[in-house]
Design a protein that fits this description.
Structural class of chain A: mainly alpha
Largest interface: A-B, 59 and 56 residues
CATH class of chain A: Mainly Alpha
CATH architecture of chain A: Up-down Bundle
Largest sheet of chain A: 2 strands, antiparallel
Order of helices and strands of chain A: HHHHHEEHHH
Shape of chain A: elongated
Strand content of chain A: under 5%
Oligomer: heterodimer
CATH topology of chain A: Four Helix Bundle (Hemerythrin (Met), subunit A)
Order of helices and strands of chain B: HHHH
Helix content of chain A: 55-70%
Structural class of chain B: mainly alpha
Shape of chain B: flat
Number of helices of chain B: 4
Largest sheet of chain B: none
Radius of gyration of chain A: 23 Å
Number of helices of chain A: 8
Chain lengths: ~250, ~110
């Protein structure tokens, strides 16, 4: 069977290295598998939110009569209704909406950076990576404001179970509702925010390498694609956080 | 300063590709806007609202993963190895929501 031996020699062993199984480079494939594991982590967090929420009573009355109480799960519209510079104005979900659009747009500029990278267009990579960085940093700034507002609370505060008035929130008590609500807010948006932060750092490293010509010398801009995958994933997670934490 | 010599040839942009990116952006922005309008401007029942939100979220997730992350254009085996494991999430979702309801009954149910 000499013919068979020749065939084996000609085609490289698919899993023995020097080849790209599934037609994706090692780095891209591993980024995908890492993201899959991250999918499980975020799913676990969001599903835990669902479970804890289902184990608390829901507010039964009309939405206009809603007040913060430890007795039932708060309505997110009523908790996240503040916008910077508009103190005391009830603008439900407006600020979160702005944050959502910022993240989607920075995801778009990232796609454009990846597209420019595939064309070896260094100037366009630099331009779009810079826009992406700007979007990411703006999002982080918005989140910092939102956390600060959540932690410091509203003017009126809310009544705790012992009857005292408490302003804002920490991990064990909060004015908005059952303690678990604030704890989950901190964990879920915090974990996502940290992903955004790492994404900004990774994007900056790749932006820097593109600027100093390192990627050019390497002969490929594929690193832009790899960090791009991570950055889109961060946007994807926010789509789910937005729905299951803020809308539902 | 040493002058850097560019070795890579710049390929001109493909207009159709760029148009596609902005089109997907439009879909995502439109879906988010619809979510807003439904959340704040309508009196639909909670379960209908929630169903619409979940459908729109999956719609957006599909476009982000398929187009922005380019998964839709990868080899079938790569798509499968990323998408199929997500079936475990469905299991976890069902298990924990039932569990949450059970905790509610145990704590506050009659």
């Amino acid at each position: 069977m000499a013919g068979t031996a020749v065939v084996v020699d000609d085609s490289k062993n698919l899993w023995g290295g020097g080849n790209e199984p599934m037609n994706a480079s090692y780095g891209k494939l591993m980024m995908w598998f890492f993201l899959l594991s991250d999918v499980f982590t975020f799913s676990a967090l969001l599903i835990a939110y669902g479970m804890v929420r289902f184990s608390h009573p829901a507010f039964e009355g009309a939405i206009e009569e809603f007040v913060f109480s430890q007795e039932y799960w708060p309505i997110p519209d009523k908790v996240f209704n503040a916008v910077p510079f508009l103190h005391g104005v009830d603008l439900p979900l407006v600020f979160v909406g702005i944050m959502t659009f910022i993240l989607i747009l920075s995801s778009v500029t990232m796609v454009l950076a990846v597209e420019a990278g595939q064309r070896n267009d260094r100037a366009a990579v630099e331009k779009w990576m810079l826009w992406t960085l700007l979007g990411g940093i703006t999002f982080l700034g918005c989140q910092a404001w939102e956390w600060s507002h959540f932690i410091h609370g509203t003017d009126a505060g809310g009544k705790l179970l012992d009857g005292s008035i408490f302003y804002g929130a920490n991990l064990s008590q909060n004015q908005y509702g059952p303690p678990n609500f604030a704890a989950l807010f901190f964990f879920i948006t915090g974990f996502h925010g940290f992903h955004v932060f790492s994404g900004v750092v990774l994007n900056f490293i790749i932006f820097f390498q593109a600027t100093v010509g390192k990627l050019e010398r390497r002969g490929t801009y594929e690193m832009v694609e790899k960090v791009g995958l991570y950055w889109h994933f961060v946007d994807l997670v926010w789509v789910f956080v937005f729905t299951f934490f803020y809308l539902v | 300063m040493e002058q850097e010599k560019s070795t890579l040839e710049v390929i001109p942009a493909d207009k159709a590709k760029i148009t596609k990116i902005w089109k997907v952006t439009g879909y995502l922005a439109a879906a988010t806007t619809v979510e807003f309008i439904i959340a704040l401007g309508t009196d639909l029942s909670y379960s209908i609202k929630t169903s619409i939100f979940i459908l729109l979220t999956i719609y957006k997730a599909y476009y982000i993963v398929s187009e922005f992350m380019h998964l839709g254009h990868e080899k079938r085996s790569l798509i499968n190895s990323i998408v199929y494991p997500c079936i475990f999430i469905v299991w976890l979702l069902i298990a924990l929501l039932i569990q949450g309801e059970a905790v509610f009954q145990a704590l506050l149910g009659q």
